[in-house]
Amino acid sequence: MVEINRPEVRNCVNHGTAAELHRAFMMFEETEECGVAVLSGRGGHFCAGYDLKELAGTSVASILGKYELGPAPMGPTHLTRLSKPVIAAVSGYAVAGGLELALMCDMRVVEETATFGVFCRRFGVPLMDGGTVRLHQLIGLSRAMDMILTGRPVDAKEAYSFGIL
């Protein structure tokens, strides 16, 4: 079990959390006794994306520079396909970078409380960890464009009808 543990910020990922997630998935990949991983968030939310407070007052170039040689901004999302399955256990928000983390997984199991979305669109922050590619591959171009361009919330029932689950 890999759990994002920042419930006070709806499990938003900052640089330190991204590094921890990357390490956890590298350990999972290297540990023969582990056959499957479950990614979840503590405290009622899967992940509400990147921690925008960390970005405040900082240039995008300096933030992205942190990730040049290390993990992706959301942690493990730039890893090539893992050799073992990963399941996202989603409750609450899986939005922006949190959506990208959920899409990185082979399967998503969700509670009725789950809300998916490209909320970062509302703030002019791009999906930068493969989310646009994975979303389009999973649910088709038209539905992906709906989510990406509008930034609207998609509840669990609609996500199921889209094929996100």
Give a written overview of the molecule.
This protein is of the alpha/beta class and 165 residues long. It contains seven helices and seven strands; from the N terminus they run E-H-E-H-H-E-E-H-E-E-H-H-E-H. The protein has helices at residues 15-30, 52-55, 60-66, 97-104, 131-139, 141-150, 156-162; strands at residues 2-4, 37-41, 86-90, 93-95, 107-110, 115-117, 154-155. The strands form two sheets. It has a four-stranded parallel sheet, covered by helices on one side. Helix 5 crosses helix 6. The chain starts with a strand and ends with a helix. The model has no long low-confidence stretch (mean pLDDT 88).
Structural class: alpha/beta
Q: Work out the number of β strands.
A: 7
Question: How is the quaternary structure best described?
Answer: single chain
Distance between the termini: 19 Å
Segments where pLDDT lies below 50 for 5+ residues? none
Percentage of residues in DSSP E strands: 15-25%
Task: Throw out a few tags for this protein.
3-stranded mixed sheet; 7 strands; single chain; alpha/beta; 165 residues; 4-stranded parallel sheet
Summarize the structure.
37% of the residues lie in helices and 15% in strands.
Please render the helix and strand layout as text.
Layout: E1 2-4, H1 15-30, E2 37-41, H2 52-55, H3 60-66, E3 86-90, E4 93-95, H4 97-104, E5 107-110, E6 115-117, H5 131-139, H6 141-150, E7 154-155, H7 156-162
Parallel strand pairs: 1-2, 2-3, 3-5, 4-6
Antiparallel strand pairs: 6-7
Helix pairs in contact: 4-5, 5-6
